[in-house]
């Protein structure tokens, strides 16, 4: 009963607020809905992609040559790791062509370094895409307390104006106005705290994806050195598969 009475009194204070206070509260509620929507969407998406990456990393543990690597990439063609592997295979193909054209020394030295640079660039592009809208959570965590403070200051000014009009500063006159003003601060903090926690958690999932991508990159470089530097067997490319993968973006 006490809790119900408290909620009713708080709701009545919100209804008694002026237009500015109500606008701030509505804006804060909208930020909260958007914040949770982004966070839940990203967490579900990252969970799926992390599982895909973990599966591919496990499969690559037994891969020792380019042919099996190509088979793994083709098997997971419609996933994030499959897309990354297909992009890396395109650069790998360029090294093989250089090797076949007689530029083996370049392929063994600068070519391997260039392959590493291209894969790092692919990782950066993927992470940039995955991090889209994640910074919104950090923005909400920073802005919502300031909006709450703005509502509080506005409410206090409104309360002091009421005091001057009534020519009275007793607790009965002051308390409702101050309570009304502090509601926006509470609302701002109730949004900022979860938003900051969600931002930290979602960012950790992005770092997991980044870590797994670098594992794939290292495995690609290892196989590239075996094929190019140690002059192991090469493999014919499935041109249709490569073109299909490059047309996905």
Description:
This is MotA/TolQ/ExbB proton channel domain-containing protein. Pfam families: MotA_ExbB (PF01618). InterPro entries: ExbB/TolQ_transport, MotA_ExbB_proton_chnl. It comes from Candidatus Chromulinivorax destructor. Belongs to the exbB/tolQ family. This protein has one domain. The longest helix is centred in the C-terminal third of the chain and has 59 residues. The protein is rod-shaped and about 95 Å long. The chain is 86% helix and 0% strand. The protein starts with a helix and ends with a helix. It is built from 8 helices and no strands. The protein has 249 residues and is mainly alpha-helical. The N terminus and C terminus are likely disordered.
Give average pLDDT, whole number: 77
Number of domains: 1
Query: How would you characterize the largest beta sheet?
Result: none
Overall structural class, as computed from helix and strand content, comes to mainly alpha
Strand content: under 5%
Sum up the overall morphology in one term. rod-shaped
**N to C succession of SSEs:** HHHHHHHH
Spatial extent as radius of gyration: 29 Å
Q: Which oligomeric state applies?
A: single chain
Percent helix range: over 70%
Outline the low-pLDDT stretches: 1-6, 232-243, 245-249
The span between the termini is 58 Å
Quickly count the helices: 8
According to DSSP, the number of beta strands is 0
